[in-house]
Each structure stands twice: as C-alpha cells, then as structure tokens.
Write a structure and sequence with these properties.
This protein has six helices and five strands, in the order E-H-E-H-E-H-E-H-E-H-H. By secondary structure, the protein is α/β, with parallel strands linked by helices. The longest helix has 22 residues.
C-alpha cells in the first residue's frame, strides 16, 4: 500500500476550485436524517476544512452513482446536503452528479473548471488513477491525497500476525491496479 499511495506535494495558498471525487457514502445504510460514510470520508471532511481555512473558494463534488445495479442514489447531492449542514454556503458548492467512474469524473469536471488550476481531493490509493484521468482531460491540478491506508514502516509483533486489515488493503490495491490497467487499455489515461 505504501508504494502505491501518493503523498502530498506543495500546494498553492488558494484555489478557486477544490474538486472532491466521491466514493465515501455508505449506500448500504439508509436512515432518514443521518449521513453514513465509509473509510474515504476524509475526502469530504478535508474539503470542508480547506474551504473553512480559505484554501479553496468553491467545492466541486464530482460523482453520480458508481454502482452497476442501483442507480437511484447519487452521491453528489447527499454530500452537498452534508456540506450545507456543516456551514458551507450553497453558493460555494457545485455538484456534478452524472459521472459513474473516475474517467467520467474528469471528463465532466473539465467544462466546469476550464483552464483553472484546481486542487484535486481523493484518497491516496486512488490518486494515481485519478491524476492520470485528469491529465488526459488536460485539467491543471495539484493533487491533495487523503485517507491514507499505509502505516509507518516499523516491525512490531502485530505486523507478524495475520490481519483482516491486510487482506482489505490487498483488495483495495488489486482493484486500483486492475482499474489502472483497464483504463489504460480503453484509453481513459
């Protein structure tokens, strides 16, 4: 995981747009009036913090439904409601809710941002594939990886024993690597 994740680079002091790639809403839990997120929630909470600190002026949430079967839940409107309830003005939130994958995130974000340099916010394990897609669309961006899954390298007893989290890490890495190759084959990168 450590060798696949990307790490932050120097970012500018201010951006007109911070683009958040979705993939954090837990679609399995539906309780009216509540938000349920998965481990990638850092994507939206960091965007909120960056907005409140004046680093980004507008938050663009890109992502519709990434599920193959159930298309009724679109993440962008859910996340817009969440940001509004966190005190972000609606005028500072733009949603793109038609994309179904990372390639479409980039393609449908390009008309919104034009030639403006953006801050792209996504999980560290996803940043490599997202960056390639955004480059393909000729979007100027600075990466802002969040949601790190790798740990500091140090040998402890816990690292020598089997771990369910290690299996989950391999699942994430395998999906990202397979996605990267598939996107390369179909010329999304």
């Amino acid at each position: 995981m450590r060798s696949w994740e990307t790490y932050p680079t120097k970012i500018a002091s201010q951006y007109r747009f911070g683009v958040v790639l979705t993939g954090m809403v837990n679609q399995q839990v539906k309780v009216k009036g509540q938000f349920h997120f998965n481990e990638s929630v850092d994507r939206i909470t960091e965007a909120c913090r960056l907005f409140q600190n004046g680093v980004i002026q507008t938050i663009i949430i890109t992502g519709g439904s990434g599920t193959l079967g159930e298309n009724e839940l679109r993440e962008s409107p859910v996340l817009k409601t969440f940001l509004s309830q966190m005190g972000i003005p609606d005028s500072a939130i733009i949603i793109e809710n038609q994309s179904r994958n990372t390639y479409e995130n980039a393609k449908l974000t390009k008309p919104i941002v034009g030639n403006e340099r953006i801050l792209m916010i996504t999980s560290a394990f996803h940043q490599r594939r997202a960056s390639a897609c955004f480059l393909k669309q000729q979007i100027q961006f600075d990466p802002y990886p969040v949601d790190f899954r790798s740990e500091r390298v140090r040998l402890t007893w816990d690292q020598l024993t089997p771990s369910v989290m290690a299996i989950k890490g391999w699942d994430i890495i395998f999906k990202e690597m397979l996605g990267y190759v598939a996107y390369w084959i179909v010329d999304y990168l």
